[in-house]
Amino acid sequence: MKTTRFLLRPTRNIGFLSQTFHASCAGDHQKYILKVGTEIPQRRKWAKELHVFDRELAAYRLLAPLKGKYSPRLFAGISANQGSDGLLFLQEIRNARNLDQLRGLSWTKLTSAIRAIAQIHAYFWNSPKLKKARSLPRHHYMRAHEVKQNLPTFLRWAQLSPRDRALFLKLTSQIPPILTRFRKRPLTLVHGDLRSDNVFYGERSIRFIDWGLSLAGNAAFDLARFAGGSPRKPLSLLQHVELFKLWHSELLRRGVRNYPSHEAWQDYCDAVLLALTIPVTNGPTLAMFSNRGHKLAKVITNRFIFAARVVNYGWEDHAVRPIDRFKS
After folding, report:
1. What was the pLDDT predicted at 319?
2. Is residue 193 within 8 Å of residue 199, measured between CB atoms?
3. What kind of fold does domain 94-327 have according to CATH?
4. Which of 5, 23, 132, 260 could form a disulfide with 32 if both were Cys (CB 3.0 to 4.6 A apart)?
């Protein structure tokens, strides 16, 4: 049996639940990325709880028929130890780059990524392939279901104003019925961790990486996660509506049926509240990761607060709820 040797060097991006390397082989012009499990025990524990390698492997196998149009190609992969460890041998994305989430994205970058993710959503809309992907959990939106148990730690860390503290306290009663409603909504492949760090922008293409938190669920979560956490400047209600319309129109154009705008908008409003649980369940841990992690935890907390207030509570006009304004 012939043995192929690869030269490995670490990538400059430090993963939280994994580690990645550039891989090259003499005589092979193709460049690769090797992704393996983290060596840090506590992070391995989190990776096991979330089954990240099981989920990422399932997502890349689902995406394989698209031949690298929206994601890097997977050449080989294996998951081990209940998803806490594994090996993914991926195509390296060339002539494209991802942008720092701390800095945030311009409106043009936001809209182009939303249009691309909508095409993935449409492709897998209520697809029977999702049922066959057994490693892909259903309606597992980050750790939204753990908001109540994580809230005390978050509130001690965040030191919020009384108004913002009340916003988070309200989540404990809002999230369970939202998760119940979402179980009755259309299913598709959801990236689950859609943020600027995981989007590669090329001259004529957009591709998404890091599918370790992917799921079969409500597509609006990707939209809310991205629109709330990655813009350079906080979005107005009008801008949220414009992004929503762009996403919904792309779904319809790509063949999605029986998903009227009023139902989709309610899904989006609910998804914005689900996204608000991300700093609750991840913020304090991310802040301990590094100095950049601390800055990022603070930034995303403020961004998601702003998005929830604008979309769900009509921060710009307290007399009109966003859902009513959209219908008008």
Report:
1. 36
2. no
3. Aminoglycoside 3'-phosphotransferase; Chain: A, domain 2 (3.90.1200)
4. 23
State whether CATH 3.30.200.20 applies to domain 1-92.
yes
Map the chain to HEC letters: CCCCCCEEEECCCCCCCEEEEEEECCCCCCCEEEEEECCCHHHHHHHHHHCHHHHHHHHHHHHHHHCCCCCCCEEEEEEECCCCEEEEEEECCCCEECCCCCCCECHHHHHHHHHHHHHHHHHCCCCCHHHHCCCCCECCCCCHHHHHHHHHHHHHHHCCCHHHHHHHHHHHHHHHHHHHHHCCCCCEEECCCCCHHHEEEECCCEEECCCCCCEEECCHHHHHHHHHHCECCCCCHHHHHHHHHHHHHHHHHCCCCCCCHHHHHHHHHHHHHHHCHHHHHHHHHHHHHCHHHHHHHHHHHHHHHHHHHHHHHCCCCCCCCHHHHHHC
Region of residue 126 (phi > 0: left; psi between -120 and 50: alpha; otherwise: beta): left
Return the ∠ at Cα 61 (arms to 224 and 251), rounded to 5°.
Answer: 40
| Least confidently predicted of 38-52, 175-189, 206-220, 221-235 | 38-52
| Measured distance CA(251)–CA(256) in Å, rounded | 5
Distance from first CA to last CA of the chain, Å, rounded? 68
Q: Which tokens in the block code for residue 244?
A: 């929503």
Paired tokens of 222: 């990707």
Query: Count of CB atoms within 10 A of residue 317's CB?
Result: 10
Over the stretch 36-87, which tens digit does the pLDDT of each residue have? 998 888 888 888 989 999 999 999 999 999 999 999 999 999 999 888 899 9
| 251 touches 126 (CB < 8 A) | no
